[in-house]
Amino acid sequence: MLKLDKIMKFLKKFNKSIEEDIHSICKRYGIRNYTINNDNSIDVDGDVDLYNKKLTKLPLKFRNVTGSFDCHNNQLKSLEGGPISVGRDFYCHNNQLTSLEGAPISIGVSFYCTNNQLTSLEGAPISIGVSFYCTNNQLTSLEGAPTSVGGNFYCNNNQLKTLEGAPTSVGGNFYCNYNQLKTLEGTPTSVGGNFYCNNNQLKTLEGTPTSVGGNFYCNNNQLKTLEGAPISIGVSFYCHNNQLKTLEGAPTSVGRDFYCNNNQLKSLEGAPTSVGRDFYCNYNQLTSLEGAPTSVGRDFYCSNNQLTTLEGAPRSVGGHFSCYNNPIFKWWGKINDKEKLEVFIDLGIDSDNPDWINQEKIDYII
């Protein structure tokens, strides 16, 4: 019995020493409104700010934090001791992390782990209330990523060759640009905002989300076809600076702008039938406008091609119709009246075929 009493006194004294250490550390780092748990972890009602403290490891064992937890701009190599639950944001960017083991299971708002040395997302939270940032790491895979992200998902500027493991649903924007992707297999099935897959090595759009609520960026790749693109785009579609020779597979409906400039197009067959605002097909090899949208809400740009006819031009253009630096331009440049423009298109004036050009009709229009 005496021996047991000694042990209990020792443990009490030991625990008191640990509690004193915890109080001292909390005071040093300005942590307030905390509760010490039986396992010597702490719950914090509010924020924890460990930003830029030259830490190589977390100074305490945290459990629940109702506010934000900020440990970015340190020299952390591990998140050991990090909280299980964070009510708002979790910041661990600008460290030397190679793993997310020890990261919270639950995040109320956003999770920032950019600018580390991560090669995997294993250990990341399962669900993110708003946004997830893992840009500027060394990721080759998204295995371990959250399954659901309410806001934006940023995995751009990594070394990704596949999107396998990506969230199944992203409520906001999805950024996978500036990687080494050759396929989009594994992308979320639904993206509520913009989808960025530009500046990769894509040769196909197979695997893209079936639904994109905002803009779709697939420019600056190696695409030769648009097969696999979403059927409908809520805002704008950007496929410029590729190797496209056809627009077959393009969305049938685009809410705002459509950019297919700077490709190798010889035809506009497959283009959307309707474009809500601007249509850019300049800097291609077009000799005809056959296949162009029937309706363009604002401006139509077909300059710097090889056009010798306006056959196939949109029947309705809400703003400017620009076709400079084409053979047809010598007639086009003289027309500044919208009604005359419609007559000009109806006549299908062809600058390379003198037999077709009726000088009296041209004089009348101009």
SSE layout and pairings?
Elements (H helix, E strand, L loop, with lengths): L1 H27 L5 E3 L5 E3 L3 E2 L12 E4 L3 E2 L14 E2 L3 E2 L14 E2 L3 E2 L14 E2 L3 E2 L14 E2 L3 E2 L14 E2 L3 E2 L14 E2 L3 E2 L14 E2 L3 E2 L14 E2 L3 E2 L14 E2 L3 E2 L14 E2 L3 E2 L14 E2 L3 E2 L14 E2 L3 E2 L6 H4 L5 H10 L11 H7 L1
Parallel strand pairs: 2-4, 3-5, 4-6, 5-7, 6-8, 7-9, 8-10, 9-11, 10-12, 11-13, 12-14, 13-15, 14-16, 15-17, 16-18, 17-19, 19-21, 20-22, 21-23, 22-24, 23-25, 24-26, 25-27, 26-28, 27-29
Antiparallel strand pairs: 1-2
Could you explain how this protein is built, in words?
There is one protein chain. The chain has 366 residues and is of the alpha/beta class. It has a domain at 223-366. Helices cover 13% and strands 17% of the residues. It contains 4 helices and 29 strands. The strands form 3 sheets. The protein has a 14-stranded parallel β-sheet with strand order 3-5-7-9-11-13-15-17-19-21-23-25-27-29, with no helix packed on it. The longest helix has 27 residues, at 2-28. The chain is elongated and about 90 Å long. It starts with a helix and ends with a helix. Residues 347-366 have low confidence and may be disordered.
Describe what is shown at a glance:
The chain has a domain at 223-366. The protein has four helices and 29 strands.
Major sheet: arrangement of strands: 3-5-7-9-11-13-15-17-19-21-23-25-27-29
The best one-word shape is elongated
Radius of gyration: 30 Å
Q: What is the percentage of strand-forming residues?
A: 15-25%
| Termini Cα gap | 114 Å
> Structural class of the secondary elements?
alpha/beta
Number of strands: 29
The overall pLDDT, averaged over residues, is 88
Main sheet overview: 14 strands, parallel
Q: Unreliable runs, pLDDT <50, ≥5 residues?
A: 347-366
Helix-residue proportion: 10-25%
What is the overall number of helices? 4
